[in-house]
Amino acid sequence: MIEENVRRILAELPSGVTLVAAAKTRTPDEILRAIAAGITIIGENYVQEAREAFAAIGSKAKWHFIGHLQKNKVKHAVEIFDVIETVDSMELAERIERACVARGRTMRVLIEVNSGREPQKAGVLPEEAEDLLREVSTLEHVSVQGLMTMGPRFGDPEQARPYFKETRDLFVRLGQEKLPNVEMKILSMGMSNTYNIAIEEGANMVRIGTKLFGAREYKK
Ligand SMILES: *Cc1c(COP(=O)(O)O)cnc(C)c1O
User: Fold this and answer.
1) Contact 22/214 with Cβ under 8 angstroms?
2) Distance 96 CA to ligand 1 centre (A)
3) I need a surface site. Which of 22, 68, 92, 218 has the fewest CB within 10 A?
4) Phi, psi (degrees; rounded to nearest 5) at 50
5) Separation of alpha carbons 68 and 102, rounded Å
6) CATH number among 3.20.20.10, 3.30.300.20, 2.40.30.10, 3.10.20.70, domain 40-202
């Protein structure tokens, strides 16, 4: 089932679009099945869960952090992840910088944009993204690679389109700034019910969980 889902979605994605398997609540065994079928990037929302999966799977895949990163988990995150997709404040970026200095590495990150301007949601507001990007670009061990957005959840995926469009416009505009230490090349948006629309609006990375692994039983 997982294997079939992975192969089908990989086959249907246009070339140039990278698939991240969103693996929250999935067991290392399920993740390994997805990798065997062709998944190369695992997305994790919780550092503790990621550490367990990473201990079993290690570098058989790349690891992207896609959840809300708590400040006290940054040190562990820097031990595991290849990309942190959810940087939304200078304070968080500075903590990543310090942890990277201690570990002698650079972290690639995306700036998470709160495209729906939802008060309870993570992400920098679109109008504040440029200022944040300029600040983060001063950090030597943090390399910005693009933008990520969730967008509001709707019953009808079509309603997500304007939020993807706005994030894409921001992505293009910020890319034209040519800031040092910043490459605007990854635009991560779209989940199981919205990835086709996100791709139409310019996403080149999609994060899919349910359509690969089946429905989640919520543990958290
Ligand atoms: C869970 C999750 C996804 C995938 O959601 P599905 O609807 O299961 O495809 C994508 N991105 C983030 C940030 C998530 O937390």
Assistant:
1) no
2) 23
3) 218
4) -65, -35
5) 22
6) 3.20.20.10
Q: Decide: 24 in ligand 1 pocket, CB within 6 A.
A: yes
- Helix (H/G/I), strand (E/B), else coil: 68: coil
CB of 64 closer than 6 angstroms to any ligand 1 atom: no
The residue to which tokens 């140039």 are assigned? 16
* Spatial separation of the C-alpha atoms in residues 196 and 19, rounded to whole Å: 12
205 touches 26 (CB < 8 A): no
Contacts of 71 (CB under 8 A, 6+ apart): 91, 92, 95
- Domain ranges in the chain are 40-202
Whole-model pTM above 0.90? yes
